[in-house]
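job 3f2a | input accepted
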Amino acid sequence: MGMSLGNDVAQQLTIRHPELKDTLFQEIGQIVATACLAHDLGNPPFGHSGEKAIQSFFIEGAGSDLQREVAPLFWSDITHFEGNANAFRLLTHQFKGRRPGGFVMTYSTLASIVKYPYASSASGKKGKFGFFTSEKDNYRRIADELGIPCQSEVGEPLRYARHPLVWLVEAADDICYEIMDIEDAHKLKILSYEDTMKLLLGFFDIETQQHIQQRIIEEGVTDNNEKVVYLRACVIGKLENECVRVFVDHEEEILSGTFQGSLIDHVSDLQHEAYERCMKVSVSRIYKSRPVLDVELSGYQIMQTLLEKFIGAVVHPERFYSKHLISRVSSQYNIDAPDLETRLMAIIDYISGMTDVYALEVYQKISGISLPIV
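job 3f2a | predicted structure (374 res):
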């Protein structure tokens, strides 16, 4: 999806600006595709539930007592913990034993994953931000090099306009996750076949709907899951075309940093209304379904336990249990640093880098539920 969005935008803008032909501009599809793959790297186990678990541990959990032990900006970072900011840290931070510059990605690629290019202290009610205090200078250097407009005054929290390609990365994320959630809900029998088809066909006018249904009949597709797969692909293709049109039509606003909303917000009325219906169904019937809630509740408990045990260990590293717990953490994390903030961030790095399955495995082992020798 990211590759298609980038390539199609490059193709259309090259027609509008012939001087861009045979330049690196025509490679933006690769940049967007790479950024799409990278932007979720910072998400902790159990997704948004994991984010909330980290935030809540420090706001209202056992970690709340640590506020007086750390700097205000650091406290703002961890109490607003954000997967997007964590992805930028993961890609740019020099972990122990690793080379400077992290993954050493291009500035354009790094800037393209920062959906919220401002500090946690400027995150507002939504709590979204793009870089931790420890990576602030990295982002400032990237923004200055790429000419990204700074929107904050002297003395205010750092805030920048988005890099233009962020809009395409965000669009790919919005399209794929929302439409794939509808398809997955059908597979899990959370949504009926009739409801799913109605939602997806709603992205097209009557004539196109009839053409799609006729094509399904002509191809001899009888399996309902396969019909949904085909229709899902049609919807994604339509939304991709719409977002490319919006980007090209609003080129100047996007480049100047004055474009408001997302690309999805500006698609044609028919597609926008259909997308809104899918979102409402997702919130009311998918995200609040019992299987989803059960996973979130379990994930939250697992994350809270891991944080309590490992944070407690680095706060009191001299204790017998702490020493054993710390010894099982990979050496790339600076867990024995002399200052508390570095040790705390090392644990957040360690836990947020786990997969769901690995987090469950560690939880079971340190809780005595699972013993490798039994």
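job 3f2a | The mean pLDDT is 93.
job 3f2a | closed
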